[in-house]
Each structure stands twice: as C-alpha cells, then as structure tokens.
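Q: Convert this sequence to structure tokens.
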Amino acid sequence: MGERQVAFVTGASRGIGKAVSVCLARAGFDVAVSARTVEDGEAREHSSTVKASNTQPLPGSLRATAALVEQEGRRARLAPADLLDAASLAAAVAGVLDDWGRIDVLVNNGRYIGPGHMDRLLDTPLELLEKHLSANSLAPLVLAKAVLPQMIARGSGKIVGITSAAAYGDPPKPAGEGGWGLGYGMSKAAFHRIAGILQVEYGGRGIEAFNVSPGFIATERMAADMAEFGFAGGEPPEVVGQVVAWLATSAEAAALSGTCIEAQFFCHERGLLPGWKGPRPSLEIPRYDPSAANLEALERRLREA
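A:
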C-alpha cells in the first residue's frame, strides 16, 4: 500500500476552500486546511468597499472544516496563515512537511478579503491594490516555491489555482453596479499566468498545474456581502470541489496541465456532481477562450492521452 496522499488547501475555512477540502478527503487525501479563521465566531474586516466597514463574523472556520475532513475518515491538520504574511505561509507549509512528510496537491484558493474589491480606481487607495496583488498573486508563489522542491524530488505533484473570469474578461458594469474593481481583476490576471508557466518550466519533471475557473458560486461570504453589489444566488461550492478532486486523482488530468478548466461546464459534462442540473448560461461573464494555438495543442494532447 502506497504512502498517504496529502493536500494543502488555502481559504479552507468556508466556501469553495471548505468544499475542496471535503471533496479531496472523500477522494482519499489527508488535508491541511489553511486560512486566518481558526475558530467559529472570529471577527475581522470583510467589507468589499472603502465606504463601509463590516467585521461581523462569517460562518465557518478551520476547526469546522477539519472536522468535516475527519468525518470522511482522513487526517486533518490546521495550518493557519495569512496571505499577506509570507512568513506565516512558509511556516504553515513547513509544519505540514515536518508532520506528514509530503504535500502532493496544493490548492491556491484563498484570496484577499477586504476593501477595494468593489471600489472604482479613483476611490481605491494604492495600498489596497498592493494588498490585492500580494495576497492574490504573490502569496500563491510563496506556497508554490515551498512545496515544489519535494514534489520535484518525488517526481510528482499538482498545483491547482482557483482563478476567476475576472482574470480574462472585463466586468459587465462598473464596480458596485454588478462589476468588480481593478484590484481584483488585475491581481487575478497575474495569478492566472502562474499555471501555464509552471507547466512549461516543470511539466517535464512530473509537475501538473491547472487553473480552475469556478463561475458564480454561492458561498457564505457571497450571501453576507455581495447582494448589495448586484451579486446573488450561484451554484454549489461542491461543483468546484468535485472538479479539483478529479484533477487530483485522474490520470486523464495530465493532458489538461497548463490550461484553464471551466468548473461548471466540466463538472456538468462529466457528471461529477450527481443531481446537479448544470451551469446556467451567462452572457455577461465570459467562458475562457484560449488562443487557437493553445487550443490545438490541448486537442492534440487529449488525442494522444
């Protein structure tokens, strides 16, 4: 019997990160869950705009997610960290490697939560744009650099980035009226480039890297914060969780390394979430459209797989 497989998931206290953690546990992974909120009821700023403050505790915590992982019969480890604190991220990974000896799958799901997300450029202080870039673009690289050496030494490893349509499409409306701010879009665009470059640099050494675009997903924070900005409803987080679990376990996933997977379409087309009716068509948020050259390369890899 082989060694136990280990996943490290950021933003795991609620929403997509919680669902990914549970789905990976169900797929056979021990899971290290990382976020800032360790216990239920912790309060911190989560308003999307500089015009208001909201520190009301959101549902969810690492402790609660860890309990769900353990209910699936797998080990869970709390790995608290702040995306704006690189030292805390490095320490979180080091703790998992010290205790469990390996990380096979890194899921970069966490992102900056706070003002500037739903503010227009002239209303957004530059220091908030820096926070977006640091948390959404640089923090995933801190984690990638921490897990890659042991993945390369083992000859296998997967890095999954939870991207966004905001990375490759313009908002349908201005921030605050159904669109999103520059900080979110530009930081997610930078983040979106990571997977393809990791594939080019390390694909020949057993590393697979993917972008997964969730589409509009119903999470605890969306319900608490986003209705006033024109966002309501959404699909279940388990849609994304099931896609990530498939990428983590399927031999077919190697052919998709370096590409962007549209989670809702992929989950529906492959029947990964029984009982879910599938994505609702949207004319406002674009489906990822790679260049013809990239599409031809992907089709060729799929034929050869």
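The radius of gyration is 18 Å.
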